[in-house]
Write the structure tokens for this entry.
Amino acid sequence: MDVYEAIYTTRAMRRVKPDPIPEDVLKKVMDAAVRGPSGGNAQTFRMICVTDPEIKSKMQKFYRACLDELNATQYASVQDQIKEDEKNSERSTPARINDSAQWLADNLHNVPMLIFFFGKLGGESTTFPVLWNLCLSARAEGLGTCITTLLKLKKDEVEKVLDTPEDGFWHMHAMIPIGYPMGNWGIAQRKPANLSTFQDRWDNPVSWEIPEPLWPSS
Ligand SMILES: Cc1cc2nc3c(=O)[nH]c(=O)nc-3n(C[C@H](O)[C@H](O)[C@H](O)COP(=O)(O)O)c2cc1C
């Protein structure tokens, strides 16, 4: 797959089938993931690939509780807006994301593999290049992924279930559910880059515009 196709179409793919990931495919994805850069090539990251049904079941319960907590606190106003939109029979983007997030919370234990990422405290700048490589290479293999950090609300419980060393060096940074998608791939919807980019100094607009995604037409 062309690198641009992988970049443009790697989206949060939460709804995936329970079909297992063949080991040769997993090896390709993991081998590509660890090509990510790290300061001094220190490679201070670890991954745990969870397929054990008992552990996945525990994680599903944690994840469901975390999502409920988030929706009752930080996302309470978004939830109210979704209900309001539904009354007006509107299918808003937050409602679509919410449906997909709820699906994941209900079905996490049916996802074939959950990949947990660990790094140093505050060391996400090292784990995330690896993690995003994993998402891109998974896409190239036809596998769906979604970066999640929600389980950090129950970080201690999660780390205990995963037997994380107790010396406090390793911290869970993210969890990626991975599997073959139920739906179709599409281009990630984003604001045009010129709206997030300045020239020379803050707030000074760039001279160019990108009204439509440049892939696949260029
Ligand atoms: C740092 C980070 C944390 C995220 N955490 C979660 C999460 O806990 N649960 C979830 O369902 N999605 C999570 N997401 C996925 C985002 O919601 C998703 O990337 C965003 O809505 C864009 O989706 P799209 O690529 O399908 O357009 C996270 C994404 C990032 C980058």
